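Example record

The entry below shows one chain as it appears in the dataset: sequence first, then C-alpha coordinates.
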Amino acid sequence: MKELINNLKGDKGIWSFVMLLALISFMPVFSASTNLVYVIGKGSTIGYLVKHLVHVFIGFGLIYFVHKVPYHYYKGLSQILLPIVGLLLIYTFFQGTVIDGANASRWIKVPFIGVTFQTSALAFIILMIYVARYLAKVHDKEITFKSSFFELWVPVFAILALILPANFSTAALIFSMVCMLVFVGRYPLRYLGMIIGMGVSMLVLFVLFAKAFPDAMPNRVDTWMNRIERFTSDEPNEDDYQIEKAKIAIASGKIYGLGPGKSVQKNFLPQSSSDFIFAIIVEEYGLAGGLTVLFLYLMLFFRFLVQAHKAKTLFGKLLIVGLGFPIIFQALINMGVAVELLPVTGQTLPLISSGGSSIWMTCISIGIIISVTRKEEEIAQEMAEKEAREAALQRMIDEHILREQQREEAEAAGIEPAAFSIEDKSNPMQAVMGK
Protein backbone atom coordinates (compact mmCIF):
# COMPACT_ATOMS: atom_id res chain seq x y z
CA MET A 1 0.00 0.00 0.00
CA LYS A 2 2.84 2.38 0.88
CA GLU A 3 4.51 1.67 -2.46
CA LEU A 4 1.22 2.34 -4.28
CA ILE A 5 0.79 5.66 -2.49
CA ASN A 6 4.35 6.63 -3.37
CA ASN A 7 3.55 5.99 -7.03
CA LEU A 8 0.68 8.49 -6.92
CA LYS A 9 2.48 11.57 -8.17
CA GLY A 10 1.04 15.03 -8.50
CA ASP A 11 -1.07 17.13 -6.19
CA LYS A 12 -1.99 15.07 -3.12
CA GLY A 13 -4.90 17.39 -2.33
CA ILE A 14 -6.60 16.61 -5.64
CA TRP A 15 -6.03 12.89 -5.10
CA SER A 16 -7.51 13.13 -1.59
CA PHE A 17 -10.67 15.06 -2.49
CA VAL A 18 -11.38 12.86 -5.52
CA MET A 19 -11.02 9.73 -3.38
CA LEU A 20 -13.29 11.17 -0.67
CA LEU A 21 -16.01 12.03 -3.20
CA ALA A 22 -15.77 8.53 -4.67
CA LEU A 23 -16.03 6.93 -1.23
CA ILE A 24 -19.03 9.09 -0.34
CA SER A 25 -20.81 7.91 -3.50
CA PHE A 26 -21.21 4.25 -2.48
CA MET A 27 -23.87 4.56 0.23
CA PRO A 28 -26.18 6.96 -1.70
CA VAL A 29 -25.88 4.89 -4.90
CA PHE A 30 -26.58 1.67 -2.96
CA SER A 31 -29.56 3.25 -1.20
CA ALA A 32 -31.02 4.91 -4.32
CA SER A 33 -30.73 1.71 -6.35
CA THR A 34 -33.77 0.33 -4.52
CA ASN A 35 -35.83 2.56 -6.81
CA LEU A 36 -34.61 0.54 -9.80
CA VAL A 37 -34.98 -2.79 -8.02
CA TYR A 38 -38.35 -2.57 -6.27
CA VAL A 39 -40.16 0.15 -8.25
CA ILE A 40 -38.95 -0.51 -11.80
CA GLY A 41 -38.05 -4.14 -11.17
CA LYS A 42 -34.52 -4.25 -12.58
CA GLY A 43 -31.57 -6.12 -11.03
CA SER A 44 -30.61 -6.17 -7.37
CA THR A 45 -29.20 -3.61 -4.94
CA ILE A 46 -25.99 -5.61 -4.47
CA GLY A 47 -25.67 -5.87 -8.25
CA TYR A 48 -25.91 -2.10 -8.65
CA LEU A 49 -23.42 -1.57 -5.83
CA VAL A 50 -20.92 -3.95 -7.44
CA LYS A 51 -21.50 -2.30 -10.80
CA HIS A 52 -20.76 1.11 -9.29
CA LEU A 53 -17.68 -0.31 -7.57
CA VAL A 54 -16.40 -1.59 -10.93
CA HIS A 55 -17.07 1.78 -12.56
CA VAL A 56 -15.15 3.62 -9.83
CA PHE A 57 -12.31 1.07 -9.89
CA ILE A 58 -11.94 1.47 -13.66
CA GLY A 59 -12.15 5.24 -13.22
CA PHE A 60 -9.24 5.32 -10.79
CA GLY A 61 -7.32 3.01 -13.10
CA LEU A 62 -7.83 5.63 -15.83
CA ILE A 63 -6.62 8.38 -13.51
CA TYR A 64 -3.47 6.40 -12.69
CA PHE A 65 -2.75 5.58 -16.33
CA VAL A 66 -3.48 9.08 -17.66
CA HIS A 67 -1.50 10.91 -14.96
CA LYS A 68 1.61 8.93 -15.94
CA VAL A 69 1.55 10.40 -19.48
CA PRO A 70 3.42 13.74 -19.85
CA TYR A 71 0.68 16.29 -20.38
CA HIS A 72 2.31 17.93 -23.43
CA TYR A 73 1.59 14.72 -25.37
CA TYR A 74 -2.10 15.64 -25.27
CA LYS A 75 -1.48 18.54 -27.66
CA GLY A 76 -0.93 16.20 -30.57
CA LEU A 77 -3.53 13.70 -29.38
CA SER A 78 -6.24 16.38 -29.42
CA GLN A 79 -5.61 17.08 -33.11
CA ILE A 80 -5.75 13.38 -33.95
CA LEU A 81 -8.78 12.54 -31.80
CA LEU A 82 -10.97 15.55 -32.66
CA PRO A 83 -11.96 14.23 -36.14
CA ILE A 84 -12.47 10.75 -34.66
CA VAL A 85 -14.77 12.17 -32.01
CA GLY A 86 -16.68 14.00 -34.73
CA LEU A 87 -17.26 10.73 -36.56
CA LEU A 88 -18.41 9.07 -33.32
CA LEU A 89 -20.89 11.89 -32.75
CA ILE A 90 -22.25 11.49 -36.28
CA TYR A 91 -22.64 7.75 -35.68
CA THR A 92 -24.36 8.46 -32.35
CA PHE A 93 -26.75 10.90 -34.03
CA PHE A 94 -27.95 8.31 -36.54
CA GLN A 95 -27.33 4.97 -34.84
CA GLY A 96 -27.09 5.83 -31.16
CA THR A 97 -28.77 3.97 -28.32
CA VAL A 98 -31.57 5.37 -26.17
CA ILE A 99 -31.36 4.43 -22.48
CA ASP A 100 -32.90 5.46 -19.17
CA GLY A 101 -36.07 6.63 -20.86
CA ALA A 102 -34.41 9.46 -22.77
CA ASN A 103 -36.02 10.57 -26.00
CA ALA A 104 -32.74 11.14 -27.82
CA SER A 105 -29.79 9.02 -28.91
CA ARG A 106 -26.83 10.03 -26.74
CA TRP A 107 -25.06 6.71 -26.28
CA ILE A 108 -23.29 4.13 -28.40
CA LYS A 109 -22.77 0.52 -27.44
CA VAL A 110 -19.19 -0.75 -27.47
CA PRO A 111 -19.04 -3.93 -29.61
CA PHE A 112 -18.36 -7.28 -27.86
CA ILE A 113 -18.42 -5.60 -24.43
CA GLY A 114 -22.01 -4.35 -24.36
CA VAL A 115 -21.11 -1.19 -22.41
CA THR A 116 -22.96 1.99 -23.40
CA PHE A 117 -20.87 5.11 -23.83
CA GLN A 118 -21.89 8.77 -24.06
CA THR A 119 -19.79 10.27 -26.85
CA SER A 120 -20.48 13.90 -25.92
CA ALA A 121 -18.54 13.43 -22.67
CA LEU A 122 -15.43 12.37 -24.57
CA ALA A 123 -15.95 15.17 -27.09
CA PHE A 124 -15.99 17.65 -24.20
CA ILE A 125 -12.52 16.58 -23.03
CA ILE A 126 -10.92 16.46 -26.47
CA LEU A 127 -12.39 19.83 -27.45
CA MET A 128 -11.14 21.57 -24.30
CA ILE A 129 -7.62 20.18 -24.86
CA TYR A 130 -7.76 21.33 -28.49
CA VAL A 131 -8.80 24.86 -27.46
CA ALA A 132 -6.05 24.99 -24.80
CA ARG A 133 -3.49 23.88 -27.41
CA TYR A 134 -4.57 26.61 -29.81
CA LEU A 135 -4.49 29.36 -27.17
CA ALA A 136 -1.03 28.27 -26.01
CA LYS A 137 0.21 28.25 -29.61
CA VAL A 138 -0.98 31.78 -30.45
CA HIS A 139 0.10 33.26 -27.12
CA ASP A 140 2.03 36.53 -27.61
CA LYS A 141 1.11 36.51 -31.30
CA GLU A 142 -1.24 38.82 -33.15
CA ILE A 143 -4.59 37.06 -33.57
CA THR A 144 -6.90 37.86 -36.47
CA PHE A 145 -10.56 36.95 -36.40
CA LYS A 146 -10.37 35.15 -39.74
CA SER A 147 -7.49 32.85 -38.78
CA SER A 148 -8.90 32.09 -35.33
CA PHE A 149 -12.38 31.48 -36.72
CA PHE A 150 -11.28 28.74 -39.11
CA GLU A 151 -8.69 27.12 -36.87
CA LEU A 152 -10.50 27.42 -33.53
CA TRP A 153 -14.19 28.15 -33.86
CA VAL A 154 -15.13 26.02 -36.87
CA PRO A 155 -14.14 22.79 -35.01
CA VAL A 156 -15.91 24.05 -31.87
CA PHE A 157 -19.16 24.83 -33.68
CA ALA A 158 -18.98 21.56 -35.62
CA ILE A 159 -18.77 19.53 -32.39
CA LEU A 160 -21.53 21.59 -30.76
CA ALA A 161 -23.79 21.15 -33.78
CA LEU A 162 -23.50 17.38 -33.46
CA ILE A 163 -24.24 17.42 -29.72
CA LEU A 164 -27.00 20.05 -29.70
CA PRO A 165 -29.90 18.04 -31.20
CA ALA A 166 -29.67 15.31 -28.55
CA ASN A 167 -28.36 17.19 -25.53
CA PHE A 168 -28.89 20.93 -25.27
CA SER A 169 -27.66 21.25 -21.67
CA THR A 170 -24.32 19.59 -22.47
CA ALA A 171 -23.88 21.70 -25.62
CA ALA A 172 -24.63 24.86 -23.64
CA LEU A 173 -22.19 23.84 -20.90
CA ILE A 174 -19.44 23.09 -23.44
CA PHE A 175 -19.94 26.41 -25.24
CA SER A 176 -19.90 28.39 -21.99
CA MET A 177 -16.76 26.56 -20.79
CA VAL A 178 -14.99 27.16 -24.12
CA CYS A 179 -15.86 30.87 -23.87
CA MET A 180 -14.53 30.92 -20.30
CA LEU A 181 -11.32 29.20 -21.40
CA VAL A 182 -10.62 31.57 -24.30
CA PHE A 183 -11.31 34.49 -21.96
CA VAL A 184 -8.74 33.16 -19.50
CA GLY A 185 -6.38 32.57 -22.45
CA ARG A 186 -6.65 36.29 -23.33
CA TYR A 187 -8.47 35.86 -26.59
CA PRO A 188 -9.52 39.33 -27.84
CA LEU A 189 -12.79 40.31 -26.18
CA ARG A 190 -14.22 41.93 -29.31
CA TYR A 191 -13.78 38.65 -31.17
CA LEU A 192 -15.28 36.69 -28.28
CA GLY A 193 -18.33 38.96 -28.29
CA MET A 194 -18.79 38.32 -32.01
CA ILE A 195 -18.53 34.55 -31.44
CA ILE A 196 -21.12 34.61 -28.65
CA GLY A 197 -23.45 36.58 -30.90
CA MET A 198 -22.94 34.06 -33.70
CA GLY A 199 -23.58 31.19 -31.29
CA VAL A 200 -26.87 32.68 -30.12
CA SER A 201 -27.93 33.40 -33.70
CA MET A 202 -27.15 29.84 -34.79
CA LEU A 203 -29.15 28.48 -31.84
CA VAL A 204 -32.16 30.61 -32.83
CA LEU A 205 -31.90 29.42 -36.43
CA PHE A 206 -31.69 25.82 -35.26
CA VAL A 207 -34.81 26.22 -33.12
CA LEU A 208 -36.73 27.83 -36.01
CA PHE A 209 -35.62 25.05 -38.38
CA ALA A 210 -36.65 22.37 -35.88
CA LYS A 211 -40.04 24.02 -35.43
CA ALA A 212 -40.56 24.25 -39.19
CA PHE A 213 -39.40 20.68 -39.89
CA PRO A 214 -40.13 18.64 -36.75
CA ASP A 215 -39.53 15.30 -38.51
CA ALA A 216 -36.04 16.23 -39.68
CA MET A 217 -34.36 15.51 -36.34
CA PRO A 218 -35.08 14.10 -32.87
CA ASN A 219 -37.87 15.98 -31.15
CA ARG A 220 -35.68 17.75 -28.61
CA VAL A 221 -36.47 21.43 -29.15
CA ASP A 222 -39.97 21.00 -27.73
CA THR A 223 -38.40 19.30 -24.72
CA TRP A 224 -36.09 22.28 -24.05
CA MET A 225 -38.84 24.84 -24.56
CA ASN A 226 -41.26 22.89 -22.38
CA ARG A 227 -38.71 22.60 -19.59
CA ILE A 228 -38.07 26.34 -19.63
CA GLU A 229 -41.80 27.05 -19.72
CA ARG A 230 -42.47 24.56 -16.93
CA PHE A 231 -39.70 26.12 -14.84
CA THR A 232 -41.16 29.63 -15.20
CA SER A 233 -44.84 28.68 -14.88
CA ASP A 234 -46.91 27.68 -11.86
CA GLU A 235 -48.82 24.87 -13.57
CA PRO A 236 -48.18 21.29 -12.37
CA ASN A 237 -46.02 19.23 -14.75
CA GLU A 238 -43.57 16.33 -14.93
CA ASP A 239 -40.54 18.41 -13.93
CA ASP A 240 -42.50 19.83 -11.01
CA TYR A 241 -43.08 16.27 -9.83
CA GLN A 242 -39.32 15.58 -9.85
CA ILE A 243 -38.47 18.86 -8.17
CA GLU A 244 -41.28 18.43 -5.64
CA LYS A 245 -39.98 15.00 -4.61
CA ALA A 246 -36.42 16.35 -4.45
CA LYS A 247 -37.51 19.26 -2.24
CA ILE A 248 -39.45 16.89 0.03
CA ALA A 249 -36.35 14.74 0.34
CA ILE A 250 -34.21 17.76 1.21
CA ALA A 251 -36.75 19.08 3.72
CA SER A 252 -37.06 15.64 5.34
CA GLY A 253 -33.32 15.46 5.94
CA LYS A 254 -33.26 18.51 8.23
CA ILE A 255 -29.88 18.93 9.97
CA TYR A 256 -28.55 15.40 10.43
CA GLY A 257 -30.73 13.37 8.05
CA LEU A 258 -32.85 10.26 8.38
CA GLY A 259 -29.83 7.95 8.37
CA PRO A 260 -28.03 5.85 5.74
CA GLY A 261 -30.46 3.88 3.59
CA LYS A 262 -33.56 5.38 5.22
CA SER A 263 -34.58 7.69 2.38
CA VAL A 264 -38.28 7.56 1.52
CA GLN A 265 -38.32 9.72 -1.62
CA LYS A 266 -35.85 7.46 -3.44
CA ASN A 267 -38.86 5.22 -4.10
CA PHE A 268 -40.74 8.04 -5.85
CA LEU A 269 -38.00 10.23 -7.33
CA PRO A 270 -36.99 9.31 -10.91
CA GLN A 271 -33.23 9.22 -11.57
CA SER A 272 -32.61 9.14 -7.81
CA SER A 273 -29.23 7.44 -8.29
CA SER A 274 -27.98 9.87 -10.94
CA ASP A 275 -29.55 13.26 -11.68
CA PHE A 276 -31.16 13.72 -8.23
CA ILE A 277 -28.71 11.86 -6.02
CA PHE A 278 -27.89 15.08 -4.15
CA ALA A 279 -31.46 15.18 -2.83
CA ILE A 280 -31.06 11.61 -1.53
CA ILE A 281 -27.76 12.56 0.15
CA VAL A 282 -29.41 15.46 1.97
CA GLU A 283 -32.42 13.33 2.96
CA GLU A 284 -30.25 10.60 4.47
CA TYR A 285 -27.37 12.70 5.82
CA GLY A 286 -29.08 16.01 6.35
CA LEU A 287 -27.82 19.54 5.80
CA ALA A 288 -24.51 18.47 7.30
CA GLY A 289 -24.05 15.83 4.59
CA GLY A 290 -25.05 18.18 1.79
CA LEU A 291 -22.68 20.90 3.00
CA THR A 292 -19.89 18.33 3.33
CA VAL A 293 -20.29 17.35 -0.32
CA LEU A 294 -20.39 21.02 -1.35
CA PHE A 295 -17.29 21.70 0.78
CA LEU A 296 -15.34 18.89 -0.93
CA TYR A 297 -16.18 20.27 -4.38
CA LEU A 298 -15.15 23.78 -3.31
CA MET A 299 -11.87 22.46 -1.87
CA LEU A 300 -11.25 20.61 -5.14
CA PHE A 301 -11.93 23.87 -6.96
CA PHE A 302 -9.43 25.62 -4.67
CA ARG A 303 -6.75 23.02 -5.49
CA PHE A 304 -7.43 23.58 -9.19
CA LEU A 305 -6.89 27.32 -8.70
CA VAL A 306 -3.66 26.77 -6.78
CA GLN A 307 -2.23 24.36 -9.34
CA ALA A 308 -3.29 26.54 -12.28
CA HIS A 309 -1.37 29.40 -10.65
CA LYS A 310 1.69 27.18 -10.10
CA ALA A 311 1.79 25.73 -13.62
CA LYS A 312 4.87 26.96 -15.49
CA THR A 313 3.38 26.71 -19.00
CA LEU A 314 0.29 28.39 -20.41
CA PHE A 315 -0.88 25.07 -21.85
CA GLY A 316 -0.71 23.49 -18.38
CA LYS A 317 -2.67 26.37 -16.84
CA LEU A 318 -5.35 26.18 -19.52
CA LEU A 319 -5.65 22.40 -19.18
CA ILE A 320 -6.39 22.72 -15.46
CA VAL A 321 -8.91 25.50 -16.03
CA GLY A 322 -10.54 23.90 -19.07
CA LEU A 323 -10.88 20.41 -17.58
CA GLY A 324 -11.17 21.17 -13.86
CA PHE A 325 -13.62 24.06 -13.69
CA PRO A 326 -16.38 22.28 -15.69
CA ILE A 327 -16.37 19.46 -13.11
CA ILE A 328 -17.15 21.96 -10.36
CA PHE A 329 -19.70 23.88 -12.43
CA GLN A 330 -21.48 20.65 -13.34
CA ALA A 331 -21.67 19.75 -9.65
CA LEU A 332 -23.13 23.17 -8.82
CA ILE A 333 -25.65 22.83 -11.66
CA ASN A 334 -26.75 19.42 -10.34
CA MET A 335 -27.22 20.82 -6.83
CA GLY A 336 -28.99 23.89 -8.21
CA VAL A 337 -31.51 21.68 -10.02
CA ALA A 338 -32.22 19.72 -6.83
CA VAL A 339 -33.12 22.90 -4.93
CA GLU A 340 -35.02 24.41 -7.92
CA LEU A 341 -32.54 27.19 -8.60
CA LEU A 342 -32.21 25.88 -12.17
CA PRO A 343 -34.49 23.97 -14.57
CA VAL A 344 -34.01 20.22 -14.95
CA THR A 345 -30.92 19.68 -17.12
CA GLY A 346 -29.99 16.00 -16.81
CA GLN A 347 -26.46 16.77 -15.56
CA THR A 348 -25.08 14.21 -13.10
CA LEU A 349 -23.13 14.87 -9.90
CA PRO A 350 -19.48 14.21 -10.87
CA LEU A 351 -17.77 11.29 -9.11
CA ILE A 352 -20.91 10.54 -7.05
CA SER A 353 -23.79 9.77 -9.42
CA SER A 354 -24.00 6.27 -10.84
CA GLY A 355 -23.07 5.76 -14.47
CA GLY A 356 -20.05 4.42 -16.27
CA SER A 357 -19.10 6.91 -18.99
CA SER A 358 -19.75 9.98 -16.80
CA ILE A 359 -17.43 8.65 -14.08
CA TRP A 360 -14.76 7.57 -16.55
CA MET A 361 -14.70 10.87 -18.44
CA THR A 362 -14.47 12.80 -15.18
CA CYS A 363 -11.58 10.55 -14.12
CA ILE A 364 -9.77 11.11 -17.43
CA SER A 365 -10.05 14.87 -16.88
CA ILE A 366 -8.73 14.48 -13.33
CA GLY A 367 -5.87 12.32 -14.62
CA ILE A 368 -4.79 14.96 -17.15
CA ILE A 369 -4.92 17.65 -14.46
CA ILE A 370 -2.80 15.52 -12.11
CA SER A 371 -0.39 14.94 -15.00
CA VAL A 372 0.15 18.71 -15.12
CA THR A 373 0.71 18.89 -11.35
CA ARG A 374 3.02 15.86 -11.55
CA LYS A 375 5.25 17.64 -14.05
CA GLU A 376 5.34 20.76 -11.90
CA GLU A 377 6.18 18.58 -8.89
CA GLU A 378 9.07 16.99 -10.78
CA ILE A 379 10.36 20.41 -11.85
CA ALA A 380 10.17 21.65 -8.25
CA GLN A 381 11.99 18.54 -7.04
CA GLU A 382 14.72 18.98 -9.67
CA MET A 383 15.12 22.63 -8.67
CA ALA A 384 15.38 21.67 -5.00
CA GLU A 385 18.00 19.03 -5.78
CA LYS A 386 19.93 21.52 -7.92
CA GLU A 387 19.85 24.11 -5.14
CA ALA A 388 20.99 21.46 -2.65
CA ARG A 389 23.92 20.51 -4.90
CA GLU A 390 24.89 24.14 -5.38
CA ALA A 391 24.69 24.75 -1.63
CA ALA A 392 26.84 21.69 -0.94
CA LEU A 393 29.36 22.82 -3.54
CA GLN A 394 29.49 26.30 -2.03
CA ARG A 395 30.10 24.86 1.44
CA MET A 396 32.97 22.72 0.14
CA ILE A 397 34.49 25.71 -1.64
CA ASP A 398 34.25 27.79 1.54
CA GLU A 399 35.85 24.98 3.55
CA HIS A 400 38.64 24.65 0.97
CA ILE A 401 39.32 28.40 1.04
CA LEU A 402 39.34 28.36 4.83
CA ARG A 403 41.87 25.50 4.93
CA GLU A 404 44.10 27.26 2.41
CA GLN A 405 44.01 30.39 4.53
CA GLN A 406 44.92 28.37 7.63
CA ARG A 407 47.78 26.70 5.72
CA GLU A 408 49.12 30.06 4.53
CA GLU A 409 48.86 31.55 8.03
CA ALA A 410 50.70 28.55 9.49
CA GLU A 411 53.51 28.81 6.93
CA ALA A 412 53.82 32.56 7.52
CA ALA A 413 54.16 31.95 11.26
CA GLY A 414 56.82 29.30 10.65
CA ILE A 415 54.62 26.56 12.00
CA GLU A 416 54.64 23.21 10.28
CA PRO A 417 51.06 22.81 8.90
CA ALA A 418 49.20 19.60 9.60
CA ALA A 419 49.37 17.06 6.82
CA PHE A 420 46.44 17.20 4.49
CA SER A 421 45.21 14.00 2.90
CA ILE A 422 44.15 13.72 -0.70
CA GLU A 423 40.56 13.37 0.48
CA ASP A 424 40.42 16.72 2.25
CA LYS A 425 38.16 18.12 -0.45
CA SER A 426 41.07 19.90 -2.13
CA ASN A 427 39.07 19.62 -5.33
CA PRO A 428 35.50 20.43 -4.22
CA MET A 429 34.08 20.50 -7.75
CA GLN A 430 35.28 16.94 -8.37
CA ALA A 431 33.91 15.83 -5.00
CA VAL A 432 30.45 17.21 -5.72
CA MET A 433 30.31 15.88 -9.25
CA GLY A 434 31.43 12.50 -7.94
CA LYS A 435 28.44 12.47 -5.60
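Notes for this example: Confidence is low (pLDDT under 50) at residues 419-426, 431-435. The beta strands are 107-109, 116-118.
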